[in-house]
Amino acid sequence: MRAMNHEDIMNAPLMPTYARFPLTVSKGKGSRVWDEGGKAYLDFCSGIAVCSLGHCPDVLTKVLSEQASQLVHVSNLYYNKPAARLATLLVELVEIPGKVFFCNSGAEANDGLIKLARRFGRHCPNPTSKEPRFEIITFNRSFHGRTLGGIAATGQQKIKEGFDPLLPGFRHVPLNNIESLRDAIGENTCAILMEPIQGEGGVNQATPEFLQAVRKECQSHNLLLMLDEVQCGFGRLGEMMGWRAIAPDLEPDAVSWAKGMGGGLPVGGFWANDRAVDEDGTELSSLLGPGTHGSTYGGNPLISAGSHAVLSEIREKNLPANAAEREAQIRSVISDWKHPAVREVRGRGLLLGLALNVDSLKHAENSTASAALCRQLMENGLLVPPAGPDVIRFLPALTVTEDEVTEALAILKTTLDGMLVSQA
Ligand SMILES: Cc1ncc(COP(=O)(O)O)c(C=O)c1O
Q1: Residue 203 C-alpha to ligand 1 middle, in angstroms?
Q2: What is the mean pLDDT of the chain?
Q3: Which of 134, 175, 375, 382 has a CA 20 to 30 Å removed from the CA of 402?
């Protein structure tokens, strides 16, 4: 049989769920990937904030091969040491007593949070009616994944369209608007779910004041504060826990993770606080008891060993500090350009959004300015993802060097210059 060429790969019988760029990536190392023809690209997409240590880091390949020869999988009917080590490390990183559940993706982690909130609302019902509380408030432009739970939680109409009837019990309110949040809290509300920085929705940050105000509302109405750190967790914002880069003293009730947690391995999880939720001292983290939740591969020894190696490396190499330094570099260089196509840089650490003046960039009518720019950047050797029609994101590996950032920004500047409408 002849080898597959680029056309064969693009025409493989895959469901057309993704609007893919016409690139087949065949190899990666550090911050670089190569296509089938051997052309190199600087990867500032990193699998959309996944490859925290870059591609094929030695520490990960070594641990995976050792663990693969020892034990790849065992049922959750039994214990395994890599999962126990990973859970212990995660609770250490959170720095608040709690317990962890493992799954395989961000959407699945958020489904777990939704189930935790429903259990909580049942355990702590409405004090007057004694009816279970079930409603969760999330924010406009949020993204919480593609499962039926995830799309119901997501605050973007286009993600929900065509999938009615949706899971009931969600309300969406504007971010950073405490009055709207207060108005939305009702007798059925049991939790608030939010991304400290919205990634897919355009890189929109919750302000420190807003996060603190949300915490206060949660305390006064006995609601869970649940953070979706799927995209912003584990060093990407300059702190191991993303929320600490914005509101260091905040104490969440539950947090979901995936993406950077495994450096490219399919892993997700969520943490719940051990705090008591009633006068008998019942812990929040105990509300999902035996038989209430599960996932065949969750906490699988191979993936857990890999995730442990990735997170240990992020901590030992102090990569959150590198994220903060590279952010400063990116902001300073771009601000010096005073480029007519650049509206602003938003976000934190290495979850940065470059908001565009779309009218100043040449792009075909059937493409958004952000997609057209991403496509041209790809042709010029830099991979970045869009975040909505007028924003592109920088999500390089947390190991990205100063020189690699300089190189990427040079490609960006040349590409923006070349797409300026005034040069048409
Ligand atoms: C904040 C957030 N939550 C959840 C998800 C869903 O994660 P997954 O694609 O692993 O299901 C994403 C994915 O982009 C995300 O950014």
Answers
A1: 14
A2: 97
A3: 375
Residues 125, 154 share a domain = yes
Ligand 1, residues 104, 259, 295, 395: which to mutate, most atoms within 8 A of Cβ? 259
Range of the domain at 298: 60-316
Atom of ligand 1 nearest to the CA of 198: 1
Q: Is 198 in the pocket of ligand 1 (CB under 6 A)?
A: no
- Measured in Å, residue 316 CA sits from the centre of ligand 1 at 26
Closest C-alpha among 394, 380, 419, 418 to residue 334: 394
Token duo for residue 15: 């469901």
Q: 297-320: per-residue pLDDT in tens?
A: 999 999 999 999 999 999 999 999
Amino acid at 204: N
**CATH, residue 281:** 3.40.640.10
344 phi, psi to nearest 5 deg: -165, 165
Residue type, 194: M
Structural tokens at position 419:
């797409």
Residues 78 and 174 both lie in one domain: yes
> Considering the domain boundaries, does residue 138 fall inside one?
yes
Long-range contacts of 324-330 (CB under 8 A, 24+ apart): 324/238, 324/349, 325/402, 326/350, 326/396, 326/400, 326/402, 326/405, 327/238, 327/352, 329/402, 329/405, 329/406, 330/394, 330/405, 330/409
| Domain shared by 197 and 236, yes or no | yes
Residues 327 and 286 in one domain: no
Q: How many domains does the chain have?
A: 2
250 and 292 fall within a common domain: yes
106 ligand 1 Cβ < 6 A: yes
Closest residue to atom 4 of ligand 1, CA basis:
144
Provide the whole-model pTM. 0.97
390 lines ligand 1 (CB under 6 A): no
pLDDT score of 370 more than 90: yes
Question: What is the per-residue pLDDT across 127-144, written as a single tens digit (0 to 9) for each?
Answer: 999 999 999 999 999 999
Would the CB of 347 count as within 6 Å of ligand 1? no
* Neighbouring C-alpha atoms within 13 Å toward the C-beta of 220: 8
Residue 394 in any domain: the answer is: no
229 lines ligand 1 (CB under 6 A): no
Domain assignment present for residue 4? The answer is no
